[in-house]
Structure formats: structure tokens, C-alpha cells
Amino acid sequence: MSTPTATTLTLDPLGPHFGARVEGLDLATAHDDDLVAVRAALIDRKVLFFPGQTLDADGQVALGRRIGELTASHPVVGGVDEAHPEIYALDSADNGFADVWHTDVTFMARPPLGSILRAVILPPSGGDTSWANSQLAYDSLSAPVRALADQLTAVHDGNREFGYYLAQRRGGQGSVWDGEVVTRLDPVEHPVIRVHPETGRKGIFVNPGFTSHIVGVSDAESRAILDLLYAHLTKPEHIVRHRWRPGDVAMWDNRATAHYANRDYGTAHRVMHRITLRGDRPFGPAASR
């Protein structure tokens, strides 16, 4: 059953704790109060879906600027065109796939706060996207495993996915990220368990796409710990799945989720446009005490 928020939003929850469709809101004409309510719902539900939107590239960028501060399209990959340096095009005709569980851009010191994704070209079927709730996953870990994970730090490395692209397709010069031109992807360290800066909730903050290893343990121990956390994070009860329709827009909290896009549509064409909101430096349980 749809439930109204304290303001003007009507949410159709996708599960008891996670995900919701926002019914009847036109993002192109939304009032400021509406977007304040969207931001609150995003923190609560982690991922929101807005059906039947009419946003174009200009409208998507304008929406993002009303919600937060936009980043460049990506630290390494340029914008969709010169007029929209903020838009990252995921185009299946140009290897634009996201078929590994990941949290956006965790290989930078300040990963994005959140992302807004717009369907541009959809295959006739397939190409669904799933999101995992990292906070729900943390809460359902056993107490001894939570105590271990709270102490750990992990390395995130973008070179495996984007090092070649930076060197060969961008000539060693990427986008401006946090005020500096990206010329190399130095691995960064983040806490394995991230404390959400707005709610104080803890969530699993490692992902198969960009996390390379756990600091201070053996390779075998690192693999075992990460495999355990990945398997737990992506249990069905921690996941919502979205079947895209023309006009759909999704928005998610990058500090509390991971996601995966199915690559099950063969040679059909799929294009999605993403923008990201500038985030802060992750901190773990030790720093929050």
C-alpha cells in the first residue's frame, strides 16, 4: 500500500526496509520542498525510482544541482559531450557495462554521495539493475564478524577497471576531481565498515568492483574476509531489483548501497546517463567514537 510522507511525496515501498517508487512527482517541475522530501526519503529508503519522467540531459543536470553539488562525469571518463561534462554515459556499444557488484567511484578519496541514473535507450527486455543495502547487511552480520569488520581497512584501486582507459584513451589526463586533474589512479584506503555521516548507521563498504584487499592481513585471509562480506552483502533479503521502463530515473545513496546491472540482453543497445553528487571522505567506527 502506498504511504504518504510528512510532506508531499507518496512512496510505494519495494520492501519492508529498502527501496521505493515515488509516485506522481515530476522531477522537471518539482518544488524545493519536494526535493527536500526526496533527499530525506533517499536517506531512509537508500534507492528511489521515479517512473514516467521527461528529463533530458539539461534537465538531469539541473535536477542534480538542485539536490547537491555535482562532480565531473567520472574521474577518468569524460562527459557525454562538451555541453554536459557532468554526465557519464554507460553505453553498451562502447563497453559501458556495470555487471559486477560495485559502489560508484570508491577508488577515490572522496567517493560520490549519491548517483542519479536516467534510462536513455533500453533493450527490448533485460538490463535490470539490482541494489544491495549495505547497512541492512551489516546489521544482519553476527556480532563476532561485526566486531572484526569494524576494525578493518581496505584498499580500493581503480586501475583494474580504468587504468588502461586513462592511459590509452585519455592520454594520461582525466577529469578534474576534487579540484585536481586526475593523471593517475593511486589506490586509496577506506574503512571496511563505513559510518553514514547523516544517520550514524554502519554499512559494509567493500565491493568486488574496486576493493583489492584488506590491509594488515595475509592474502588468503583478505580473500576469505572479502568473500564472506560480498556473499553476505548480496543475499536476496538485502536486495531490490528494478526493471527499467522508458522515462525511469533512479536515485541512490552511494554511502549505503552497492549495485549491479544485468548484462543479459545480448547485442541489443542499452544507454544510461548518470550524474553523481559530491561526497565526503568515508570514516569508520573508530573515528566515530
TrEMBL record:
GO terms for molecular function: dioxygenase activity. Keywords: Dioxygenase, Iron, Metal-binding, Oxidoreductase. It comes from the Bacteria. Residues 12-276 form the TauD/TfdA-like domain. The keyword Cell cycle does not apply. Pfam families: TauD. Its cofactor is Fe(2+). This is Taurine dioxygenase.
